[in-house]
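To close the chapter, one final illustration. This time we ask the reader to focus less on the individual chains and more on the assembly as a whole: which components sit near each other, and how the overall shape emerges from the parts.
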Amino acid sequence: MNLVTAYFRDLYRATISGWNRFWFTPADVATLALIRILGGAMLLYTHAVWTIGLEDFFGANSWISPEAARGLQPNDNFVWSYFWLIHSRGALWAAHIAALVVFALLTLGLFTRVMSVLALLITVAYVNRVPSAQFGLDQINVVLAMYLMIGPSGAAYSLDRLWARRREGRGAPAIVPPSVSANLAIRLMQVHMCVIYFFAGVAKQQGETWWVGDALWGAIANLEYQSLDVTWLAKWPVLLAIMTHVTVYWELSFCVLVWPRLTRPLVLALAVPLHLGIAFCMGMVTFGLVMLIGCLSFVPPALVRRLIERRDLSVDYAADQDRAGEDRLAETLPLSQVAGRRHRDARFATSRKQSG
Amino acid sequence: MATPARTSGPAIVEPAQGRGWSPAICALVSVAILWHLAAVILAPLSNPTPTILGDRLRPVFQPYLSATHMDQGYKFFAPDPGPSHLIKYELTMSDGSKQKGVLPDIEAHRPRLYYHRHFMLSEFYNNLDELPPPPTVPDQPMPELDWTRLSPSARQREFAKSYADHLLDKYGATSVSLVLEEHNIPPPQRVAEGLPLNHASLYRQRTLGTFTGEQP
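The assembled structure is written out below.
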């Protein structure tokens, strides 16, 4: 009995400890800031394209009348859009231009906190107004906007940061202190991506072609989607089957294999050809890219800083490893490799000195 | 062991120095996280195919899912990549002349995202009601199946009228006829043998009706 009690006591303590470490460890904002720039640019482009047919889709006599749009969920009063309140052309264009300004400011990182909240509200308002013109891109846009709102996404690579440093003078730190909300936003994004891929994979298990192995053919031979003709794959059914199965099992296993440090790089590397394949073969560049932006949430901030700023934070993150556990180790992998290379270089230099 | 030299530049605040939250705030936020994650998982669990558990929990989370636009199934190209659906229209102008168009139009609807917006209009119409899936793609020309004579549901009628009203208003036409066209995907063997993806045998059509401005 004592053994059982001890087990559950340990389980409870480990769960609480792991939960707190996972959600409430302060984190550098670099990854979130990068996602703000790319996600903001995607939101800006997505909505800028509406400009071509703004009145065709959002006007009084649009493709989808307000009655038809609202009739989809007649008993759901929580599906909202401020477009229901807009009845004149002038107001419609003013609202649209204001939306584009918000997305532009979010991308640049000016008044980021306010802009990120507005960006979510605007994104939801647009998709609810045109339910029959949306697809996966819009779903992920909403996901990104929601989590950008939670963390201090403007605390790096932003006009806000530039402004703050000017105000604070030369003594201002180059990097703002890590914050819990930055970690929270990234964690929520990561978990949401896992849920998206898992259910995308599970849903495919209900389909015969995904099981048999010729589903990918159904995608590449669809003339209305096709932007790059790869139907020569018709002569390579085994290759098609392998690609189909890899797609499904990659989606299903993403939520497990993306966490350990050894499998994370492989899982993320596979995301690139998969989503770029969708982007360039099926003409869904925006969807392919927005999924990759979501996958960026798994890239450690240290690596982001190293790539963007050429700044080596291995010292800072090495100190962080003990505290943050296995998942943190995964994030520091590239820097560990760098540290290892330095160690080898140092030994090499020493041996040359001795032999010379 | 000597500490490696830090990259030159302004002072860097080490990650470990970040300020944490108080236990009370963490507890409060934990409840919010649990609520949010439950909603995130529930949405695809019961969308679009309902589940027993999802149906029980849905009323609790529906307002949150709807308000945040998170009520999504994330079923990209599932359960199977199917045929495409296009809406063809023919406008009759006041002088009796005819004008034709299609949703989506690869030439007229650019850039590609704008094309996809129009593509989704026709796909959405087709998906409004769960139609029985088409049979396995035949090698022979597509026979006239019941699909071509299926009556539209009330929601499909509403959306067809909405699309028609838009076309009438935009082009100043007196009437417009809508046709739903399904473009099936041939098996790889047939394509390897030389069948083009736009072969006439791969298409079938269903008339959605002729609409005038006076119709209710």
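Chain B touches chain A through 84 residues (CB under 8 Å). The two ends of chain B are 84 Å apart (CA to CA). With these observations in hand, you are ready for the problems at the end of the chapter.
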